[in-house]
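Go through this chain.

——
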Amino acid sequence: MREALFIKKNKDRWLKNQQEPPGTPDEQARSFTQLVDDLAYAKTFYPTSKTTQYLNKQASDMYLGIYQNHKEESSRIGYFWKYELPLVIYKQRKAVLFAFVLFTVFFLLAFFIAAKDPELANNFFGDNYVQKTLDNIADGNPFGIYETGNPVLSWLGIMINNIRVAFFFFVSGIFCGVPTMYKLAETGAMIGIFDQLFASKGLGIQFWLVVFVHGTLEITAIILAGAAGFVLGKSFLFPGTKKRMEAFGEGAKDGVKIMIGILPAFIIAAFFEGLFTRLYNNASWFTTLLTAASVLFVIWYFIIYPVQLFRRGIRIAKEGSAGDV
Protein backbone atom coordinates (compact mmCIF):
# COMPACT_ATOMS: atom_id res chain seq x y z
CA MET A 1 0.00 0.00 0.00
CA ARG A 2 1.32 3.43 -0.88
CA GLU A 3 2.00 5.70 2.07
CA ALA A 4 -0.48 8.33 0.85
CA LEU A 5 -3.26 5.74 0.72
CA PHE A 6 -2.28 4.40 4.14
CA ILE A 7 -2.54 7.91 5.60
CA LYS A 8 -5.84 8.62 3.86
CA LYS A 9 -7.32 5.37 5.13
CA ASN A 10 -6.42 5.93 8.79
CA LYS A 11 -5.99 9.69 9.19
CA ASP A 12 -9.47 10.34 10.63
CA ARG A 13 -9.00 7.71 13.34
CA TRP A 14 -5.58 9.05 14.28
CA LEU A 15 -6.87 12.61 14.56
CA LYS A 16 -9.85 11.46 16.62
CA ASN A 17 -7.54 9.63 19.04
CA GLN A 18 -5.47 12.79 19.39
CA GLN A 19 -8.30 15.31 19.71
CA GLU A 20 -10.86 13.15 21.51
CA PRO A 21 -8.99 10.48 23.49
CA PRO A 22 -11.05 7.32 24.19
CA GLY A 23 -12.75 7.44 27.57
CA THR A 24 -13.27 3.90 28.90
CA PRO A 25 -10.43 1.43 29.53
CA ASP A 26 -11.83 -0.92 26.87
CA GLU A 27 -11.92 1.85 24.28
CA GLN A 28 -8.39 2.88 25.24
CA ALA A 29 -7.09 -0.69 24.88
CA ARG A 30 -8.83 -1.15 21.53
CA SER A 31 -7.58 2.17 20.14
CA PHE A 32 -4.09 1.53 21.41
CA THR A 33 -3.97 -1.91 19.83
CA GLN A 34 -5.07 -0.51 16.47
CA LEU A 35 -2.45 2.21 16.77
CA VAL A 36 0.31 -0.31 17.59
CA ASP A 37 -0.71 -2.34 14.52
CA ASP A 38 -0.55 0.81 12.37
CA LEU A 39 2.85 1.62 13.84
CA ALA A 40 4.18 -1.88 13.13
CA TYR A 41 2.96 -1.61 9.53
CA ALA A 42 4.51 1.84 9.11
CA LYS A 43 7.85 0.71 10.56
CA THR A 44 7.88 -2.19 8.11
CA PHE A 45 7.05 -0.29 4.92
CA TYR A 46 7.91 3.36 5.73
CA PRO A 47 10.68 3.11 8.39
CA THR A 48 12.09 6.62 7.88
CA SER A 49 8.77 8.37 7.22
CA LYS A 50 7.34 11.19 9.30
CA THR A 51 4.18 9.11 9.48
CA THR A 52 6.09 6.47 11.46
CA GLN A 53 7.45 9.14 13.82
CA TYR A 54 3.97 10.57 14.29
CA LEU A 55 2.46 7.16 15.09
CA ASN A 56 5.30 6.34 17.49
CA LYS A 57 4.71 9.59 19.37
CA GLN A 58 0.94 9.06 19.51
CA ALA A 59 1.37 5.47 20.72
CA SER A 60 3.70 6.65 23.50
CA ASP A 61 1.25 9.35 24.59
CA MET A 62 -1.73 6.96 24.53
CA TYR A 63 0.12 4.35 26.55
CA LEU A 64 1.03 6.95 29.14
CA GLY A 65 -2.65 7.93 29.29
CA ILE A 66 -3.72 4.31 29.82
CA TYR A 67 -1.44 3.95 32.79
CA GLN A 68 -2.28 7.34 34.23
CA ASN A 69 -5.95 6.35 34.30
CA HIS A 70 -5.29 2.86 35.60
CA LYS A 71 -6.42 2.31 39.19
CA GLU A 72 -3.66 1.19 41.49
CA GLU A 73 -3.88 -0.35 44.93
CA SER A 74 -0.75 1.45 46.02
CA SER A 75 -0.62 5.09 47.07
CA ARG A 76 -0.42 7.96 44.61
CA ILE A 77 3.23 8.49 45.51
CA GLY A 78 4.05 4.85 44.89
CA TYR A 79 2.23 5.01 41.57
CA PHE A 80 4.34 8.01 40.55
CA TRP A 81 7.64 6.23 41.18
CA LYS A 82 6.48 2.90 39.79
CA TYR A 83 4.80 4.11 36.61
CA GLU A 84 4.60 7.84 35.88
CA LEU A 85 8.25 8.85 36.19
CA PRO A 86 9.71 5.88 34.26
CA LEU A 87 7.13 6.36 31.49
CA VAL A 88 7.92 10.07 31.23
CA ILE A 89 11.63 9.17 31.03
CA TYR A 90 10.80 6.77 28.19
CA LYS A 91 8.54 9.27 26.44
CA GLN A 92 11.25 11.95 26.59
CA ARG A 93 14.12 9.55 25.95
CA LYS A 94 15.46 11.61 23.03
CA ALA A 95 15.87 14.66 25.26
CA VAL A 96 17.53 12.49 27.93
CA LEU A 97 19.89 10.99 25.35
CA PHE A 98 20.74 14.44 23.98
CA ALA A 99 21.52 15.72 27.48
CA PHE A 100 23.70 12.68 28.19
CA VAL A 101 25.63 13.00 24.91
CA LEU A 102 26.15 16.74 25.39
CA PHE A 103 27.43 16.22 28.93
CA THR A 104 29.73 13.35 27.88
CA VAL A 105 31.18 15.17 24.87
CA PHE A 106 32.21 18.18 26.94
CA PHE A 107 33.47 15.95 29.75
CA LEU A 108 35.81 14.19 27.30
CA LEU A 109 36.86 17.41 25.55
CA ALA A 110 37.74 19.08 28.84
CA PHE A 111 39.53 15.96 30.11
CA PHE A 112 41.90 15.85 27.13
CA ILE A 113 42.33 19.63 26.84
CA ALA A 114 43.22 19.82 30.55
CA ALA A 115 45.95 17.21 29.94
CA LYS A 116 47.59 19.70 27.55
CA ASP A 117 46.83 22.81 29.59
CA PRO A 118 47.25 22.33 33.37
CA GLU A 119 46.20 25.95 33.98
CA LEU A 120 42.65 25.09 32.90
CA ALA A 121 41.95 23.60 36.32
CA ASN A 122 42.96 26.86 38.03
CA ASN A 123 40.65 28.82 35.76
CA PHE A 124 37.69 26.62 36.64
CA PHE A 125 38.24 25.93 40.35
CA GLY A 126 40.54 28.72 41.48
CA ASP A 127 44.18 28.59 42.51
CA ASN A 128 43.48 27.90 46.20
CA TYR A 129 41.24 24.87 45.58
CA VAL A 130 43.62 23.32 43.06
CA GLN A 131 46.66 23.92 45.28
CA LYS A 132 44.88 22.39 48.28
CA THR A 133 44.02 19.33 46.20
CA LEU A 134 47.61 19.00 44.98
CA ASP A 135 48.85 19.30 48.58
CA ASN A 136 46.46 16.52 49.63
CA ILE A 137 47.77 14.32 46.82
CA ALA A 138 51.35 15.00 47.89
CA ASP A 139 50.44 14.12 51.49
CA GLY A 140 48.98 10.77 50.41
CA ASN A 141 45.37 11.77 51.05
CA PRO A 142 44.23 12.86 47.54
CA PHE A 143 40.54 13.19 48.35
CA GLY A 144 40.99 14.88 51.69
CA ILE A 145 38.82 17.76 50.48
CA TYR A 146 35.81 15.53 51.22
CA GLU A 147 36.87 15.07 54.85
CA THR A 148 36.50 18.73 55.77
CA GLY A 149 33.48 20.41 57.32
CA ASN A 150 30.58 19.19 59.44
CA PRO A 151 28.96 16.14 57.77
CA VAL A 152 25.36 17.22 58.37
CA LEU A 153 25.93 20.84 57.37
CA SER A 154 27.84 19.68 54.30
CA TRP A 155 24.92 17.43 53.35
CA LEU A 156 22.37 20.23 53.66
CA GLY A 157 24.53 22.80 51.89
CA ILE A 158 25.35 20.51 48.96
CA MET A 159 21.73 19.38 48.63
CA ILE A 160 20.33 22.92 48.53
CA ASN A 161 22.94 24.11 46.04
CA ASN A 162 22.46 21.15 43.68
CA ILE A 163 18.67 21.48 43.70
CA ARG A 164 18.97 25.21 43.02
CA VAL A 165 21.29 24.58 40.07
CA ALA A 166 19.02 21.84 38.70
CA PHE A 167 15.96 24.07 38.74
CA PHE A 168 17.93 26.70 36.86
CA PHE A 169 18.68 24.06 34.23
CA PHE A 170 14.97 23.33 33.93
CA VAL A 171 13.51 26.84 34.00
CA SER A 172 16.11 28.25 31.59
CA GLY A 173 14.93 25.71 29.03
CA ILE A 174 12.19 28.21 28.11
CA PHE A 175 14.87 30.32 26.39
CA CYS A 176 15.10 27.84 23.51
CA GLY A 177 17.19 25.54 25.73
CA VAL A 178 20.34 27.60 25.10
CA PRO A 179 21.20 28.42 28.77
CA THR A 180 20.50 24.80 29.66
CA MET A 181 22.90 23.60 26.98
CA TYR A 182 25.58 26.01 28.16
CA LYS A 183 25.31 25.07 31.84
CA LEU A 184 25.15 21.34 31.15
CA ALA A 185 28.22 21.57 28.88
CA GLU A 186 30.01 23.64 31.53
CA THR A 187 29.21 21.05 34.21
CA GLY A 188 30.49 18.23 32.02
CA ALA A 189 33.68 20.18 31.32
CA MET A 190 34.19 20.93 35.01
CA ILE A 191 34.01 17.24 35.95
CA GLY A 192 36.31 16.31 33.07
CA ILE A 193 38.92 18.81 34.27
CA PHE A 194 38.53 17.58 37.85
CA ASP A 195 39.04 14.00 36.68
CA GLN A 196 42.18 14.99 34.75
CA LEU A 197 43.58 16.66 37.85
CA PHE A 198 43.73 13.25 39.53
CA ALA A 199 44.41 11.15 36.44
CA SER A 200 47.56 13.17 35.77
CA LYS A 201 48.83 11.99 39.15
CA GLY A 202 47.99 8.33 38.48
CA LEU A 203 44.75 8.44 40.45
CA GLY A 204 42.25 8.03 37.63
CA ILE A 205 40.68 4.82 38.94
CA GLN A 206 40.55 6.12 42.51
CA PHE A 207 38.75 9.21 41.23
CA TRP A 208 35.88 7.12 39.89
CA LEU A 209 35.70 4.91 42.97
CA VAL A 210 35.68 7.81 45.42
CA VAL A 211 34.00 10.77 43.71
CA PHE A 212 31.28 8.61 42.22
CA VAL A 213 30.16 7.43 45.64
CA HIS A 214 27.95 10.50 45.45
CA GLY A 215 28.65 11.51 41.87
CA THR A 216 26.70 8.70 40.22
CA LEU A 217 23.33 9.90 41.51
CA GLU A 218 24.29 13.57 41.42
CA ILE A 219 25.45 13.58 37.79
CA THR A 220 22.50 11.45 36.69
CA ALA A 221 20.13 13.95 38.29
CA ILE A 222 21.96 16.89 36.67
CA ILE A 223 21.68 15.27 33.23
CA LEU A 224 17.96 14.62 33.78
CA ALA A 225 17.47 18.22 34.90
CA GLY A 226 19.08 19.30 31.64
CA ALA A 227 16.76 16.93 29.77
CA ALA A 228 13.76 18.49 31.55
CA GLY A 229 14.93 21.91 30.35
CA PHE A 230 15.24 20.62 26.78
CA VAL A 231 11.73 19.14 26.98
CA LEU A 232 10.40 22.53 28.06
CA GLY A 233 12.13 24.38 25.22
CA LYS A 234 11.35 21.75 22.59
CA SER A 235 7.64 21.67 23.41
CA PHE A 236 7.39 25.41 22.73
CA LEU A 237 9.64 25.56 19.66
CA PHE A 238 8.38 22.37 18.00
CA PRO A 239 4.72 21.76 18.93
CA GLY A 240 4.25 19.28 16.10
CA THR A 241 0.59 18.68 15.21
CA LYS A 242 -0.66 20.25 18.47
CA LYS A 243 -1.35 23.86 19.29
CA ARG A 244 1.76 25.58 20.60
CA MET A 245 0.41 26.34 24.09
CA GLU A 246 -1.07 22.86 24.40
CA ALA A 247 2.27 21.28 23.49
CA PHE A 248 4.07 23.67 25.84
CA GLY A 249 1.73 22.73 28.68
CA GLU A 250 2.41 19.04 28.14
CA GLY A 251 6.15 19.65 27.96
CA ALA A 252 6.08 21.70 31.16
CA LYS A 253 4.10 18.94 32.89
CA ASP A 254 6.59 16.27 31.83
CA GLY A 255 9.50 18.49 32.85
CA VAL A 256 8.03 19.09 36.30
CA LYS A 257 7.54 15.34 36.76
CA ILE A 258 11.20 14.76 35.93
CA MET A 259 12.28 17.48 38.35
CA ILE A 260 10.14 16.04 41.14
CA GLY A 261 11.53 12.61 40.32
CA ILE A 262 15.18 13.61 40.68
CA LEU A 263 14.81 15.41 44.02
CA PRO A 264 15.43 12.22 46.04
CA ALA A 265 18.54 11.56 43.93
CA PHE A 266 19.93 14.96 44.94
CA ILE A 267 19.05 14.40 48.58
CA ILE A 268 20.68 10.96 48.69
CA ALA A 269 23.72 12.08 46.67
CA ALA A 270 24.33 15.00 49.05
CA PHE A 271 23.88 12.64 52.01
CA PHE A 272 26.48 10.28 50.55
CA GLU A 273 28.89 13.16 49.87
CA GLY A 274 28.51 14.68 53.30
CA LEU A 275 28.70 11.47 55.33
CA PHE A 276 30.08 8.55 53.31
CA THR A 277 32.53 9.77 50.64
CA ARG A 278 34.88 10.84 53.44
CA LEU A 279 35.14 7.19 54.53
CA TYR A 280 37.13 6.18 51.44
CA ASN A 281 40.31 5.72 53.52
CA ASN A 282 38.82 3.84 56.46
CA ALA A 283 36.08 1.83 54.74
CA SER A 284 36.96 1.65 51.06
CA TRP A 285 34.96 -1.59 50.67
CA PHE A 286 31.84 0.26 51.80
CA THR A 287 32.30 3.28 49.52
CA THR A 288 33.05 0.98 46.57
CA LEU A 289 29.87 -0.96 47.33
CA LEU A 290 27.86 2.27 47.38
CA THR A 291 29.30 3.31 44.02
CA ALA A 292 28.50 -0.07 42.44
CA ALA A 293 24.97 -0.08 43.88
CA SER A 294 24.34 3.46 42.60
CA VAL A 295 25.53 2.59 39.09
CA LEU A 296 23.34 -0.52 38.95
CA PHE A 297 20.33 1.41 40.22
CA VAL A 298 20.75 4.19 37.62
CA ILE A 299 21.13 1.72 34.76
CA TRP A 300 18.10 -0.28 35.84
CA TYR A 301 15.65 2.45 36.88
CA PHE A 302 16.42 5.11 34.28
CA ILE A 303 17.30 2.90 31.28
CA ILE A 304 16.09 -0.70 31.51
CA TYR A 305 12.90 -0.37 33.56
CA PRO A 306 11.23 2.37 31.43
CA VAL A 307 11.68 0.22 28.30
CA GLN A 308 10.35 -2.87 30.09
CA LEU A 309 7.37 -0.92 31.37
CA PHE A 310 6.50 0.42 27.94
CA ARG A 311 6.74 -3.01 26.32
CA ARG A 312 4.64 -4.48 29.11
CA GLY A 313 1.98 -1.87 28.40
CA ILE A 314 1.85 -2.88 24.73
CA ARG A 315 1.39 -6.50 25.74
CA ILE A 316 -1.32 -5.65 28.28
CA ALA A 317 -3.18 -3.53 25.75
CA LYS A 318 -3.04 -6.30 23.15
CA GLU A 319 -4.19 -8.95 25.61
CA GLY A 320 -7.01 -6.69 26.77
CA SER A 321 -8.14 -6.13 23.20
CA ALA A 322 -7.99 -9.84 22.44
CA GLY A 323 -10.12 -10.54 25.49
CA ASP A 324 -12.82 -8.20 24.21
CA VAL A 325 -13.21 -10.06 20.91
